[in-house]
Structures are given as structure tokens and as C-alpha cells.
């Protein structure tokens, strides 16, 4: 098992770097290795293993989210060692490649990276590679219908700290901004789907019928979302397992942190289990699976990381 995170004195500080820890079966996680860091903040590492067992480590650099650049290090030996970092898309400003959640690789070899940007409007896209990660092209933008018009009419947005959180947030984090940080699943090489974090109190959904190049407008689901990260995995039997904070208030409390399961390809989800339900912040989960087993990490009160392994 490999797990990666960003850490330092505080989120957004210049000393924040990227760390990685390895775990062998039956052993504890090893002391973390610093994979990147220097004179500016680092963010949002994403691990991904290709069909040929390469391991990609993506991450962002930059003081402002809207000005992120994406970097990558690649392992040829299953994550034991990694090559030197390089920019994913030379000269890009805003952030290419996966923004928080893992890519998926289709049966035809195509890699789809769930991506988004956070400017005045929050919107998603998918970065697509047909050559095993050597180069990428982007899909269309994935937006909430009418969001751009709403933003143009909005002159005075709240800012500061939400009444339920000590986390400093900008005006772009309140209602009427859009969707970010998709999580993907595939039916086959053509039918691809995503769920997205939003500022609107609900998880949103978009679908592609051409293998990830073109996506529908984002529409709300019935699943509550508190404008915090979500992630999902598809089990061998076709069930979808979503890990999320089921709280329907923008920037609401990040407890409970729950597992929900869909048996109808994402049309409906039922709450299965609360990983955490007490006071505190339990957030930004990541989930992968093998057969009917899931492996989950999440942030514990913004100080530690929890790892869990269970059968579903």
C-alpha cells in the first residue's frame, strides 16, 4: 500500500510539502519520505497505478489555487522508488491532471484524470491520455447550468470564516460557485460517469457517452454534500462505494464521514456505515478497492491520517 499527503505548518504555507509512506502486508506504515517541497506550497497528491504497474504521483504547486501547476513523479517498480519530478503540461497555469481523486484506466488503455479549476467559477473537466500518461488533452468544461449568469449578477459575496468551521475560506467557497474535484467510474470504454463536490449542498453528477471527451452539464443528485471532498470506487461485482460527509450545508460540519453504496450504477445510494460520527473534522477521503475489499484513508482533525481496510 502507498499513501500520500501534503503536510507542513499550515495549509498554504511555503513549508508545505508532499509525503509518501509505504506499507507491506502484515506490517505498519513506514516512516514517511518527503517526495517534494521547497520555496512554495505544495498540494493535493494523487497516486495512480496503470495497467502495466507504473505508479504515478501527481501533485500541485503554487500559492494561489487558481495559479496551480501540476507536477508528476513516476515509479517503474511499484512505488519503491520514483524518478525525478517534471511538469505534467509545460507552461500550464491552473492545474492539469487529477486535482484530488485518482484517475481510472479503461479497458482500451485510455487514462482519464478527474480534474477541476477554481477561478471565479468552479468547474470540472477530464484530462485524457491515449499514450499511458505521456501526454494529455482536456475534455469540455463541466459546469452547472446557469452558474455563470448567477456569478455575473453576484456583487457582494460573504467571506471570512463559516460559522460552523475554523477553516478560513474565501468568497469563492460560498454558494453559487460551482463544482470541483470529480470522482470517476466507467461502465465500459464509452459510458463514463462522475460525481462532483459542489457549493450547492448536494453532490452533482455528469455523464459521458464517448469515453470521457464530452460531458453533460452537472446536475444535482439527492446526496448531501458540505463542500468537502468525496471519493468513490467500483467493486468487482459492479457496486459503487462512496465515502463522503453526508451533510447538506455548504461548508458544513465534516462529521459524520460515511460509506454509502449504490447497486443501480449510481442512480441511488444507501448509507452503509459511519467511519466517524463524533465531534471533529473527518474529511478528504480516498478509497480504492480489490474484489469486495476497500482501502480508505482520510484526514483526522486536520492533524493525522486514518487508514482502514474492510470487506463490503
Automatic annotation (TrEMBL):
InterPro entries the UniProt entry points to: Sialidase, Sialidase_sf
Domain Sialidase: 2-296
Signal peptide: none
CDD domains (alphabetical): Sialidase_non-viral
Coiled-coil stretches noted in the UniProt entry, renumbered to this chain: none
Pfam families named in the record: BNR_2
SUPFAM superfamilies: Sialidases (SSF50939)
Name the record gives this protein: Exo-alpha-sialidase
Organism whose genome encodes this protein: Blautia wexlerae
Amino acid at each position: 500500500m502507498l499513501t500520500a499527503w501534503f503536510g507542513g505548518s499550515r495549509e498554504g504555507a511555503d513549508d508545505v510539502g508532499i509525503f509518501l509512506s509505504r506499507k507491506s502486508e502484515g506490517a505498519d506504515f513506514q516512516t514517511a519520505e518527503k517526495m517534494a517541497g521547497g520555496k512554495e506550497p505544495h498540494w493535493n497528491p494523487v497516486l495512480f497505478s496503470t495497467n502495466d504497474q507504473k505508479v504515478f504521483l501527481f501533485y500541485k504547486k503554487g500559492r494561489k489555487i487558481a495559479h496551480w501547476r501540476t507536477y508528476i513523479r513516476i515509479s517503474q517498480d511499484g512505488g519503491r522508488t520514483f524518478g525525478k519530478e517534471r511538469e505534467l503540461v509545460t507552461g500550464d497555469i491552473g492545474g492539469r491532471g487529477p486535482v484530488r481523486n485518482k484517475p481510472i484506466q479503461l479497458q482500451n488503455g485510455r487514462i482519464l484524470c478527474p480534474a477541476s479549476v477554481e477561478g471565479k467559477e468552479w468547474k470540472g473537466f477530464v484530462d485524457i491520455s491515449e499514450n499511458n500518461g505521456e501526454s494529455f488533452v482536456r475534455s469540455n468544461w463541466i459546469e452547472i447550468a446557469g452558474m455563470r449568469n448567477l456569478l455575473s449578477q453576484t456583487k457582494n459575496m460573504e467571506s471570512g470564516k463559516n460559522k460552523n468551521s475554523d477553516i478560513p475560506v474565501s468568497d469563492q467557497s460560498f454558494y453559487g460557485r460551482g463544482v470541483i474535484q470529480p470522482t470517476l467510474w466507467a461502465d465500459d470504454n464509452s459510458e463514463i460517469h462522475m460525481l462532483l463536490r459542489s457549493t450547492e449542498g448536494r453532490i452533482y453528477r455528469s455523464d459521458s457517452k464517448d469515453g470521457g471527451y464530452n460531458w453533460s452539464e452537472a446536475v444535482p443528485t439527492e446526496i448531501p454534500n458540505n463542500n468537502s471532498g468525496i471519493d468513490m470506487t467500483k467493486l468487482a461485482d459492479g457496486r459503487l462505494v462512496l465515502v463522503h460527509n453526508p451533510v447538506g450545508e455548504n461548508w458544513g460540519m465534516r462529521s459524520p464521514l460515511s460509506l454509502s453504496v449504490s447497486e443501480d450504477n449510481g442512480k441511488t445510494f444507501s448509507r452503509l456505515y459511519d467511519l466517524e460520527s463524533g465531534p471533529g473534522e473527518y474529511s478528504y477521503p480516498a478509497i480504492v478497492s480489490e474484489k469486495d475489499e476497500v482501502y480508505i484513508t482520510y484526514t483526522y482533525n486536520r492533524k493525522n491520517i486514518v487508514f482502514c481496510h474492510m470487506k463490503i
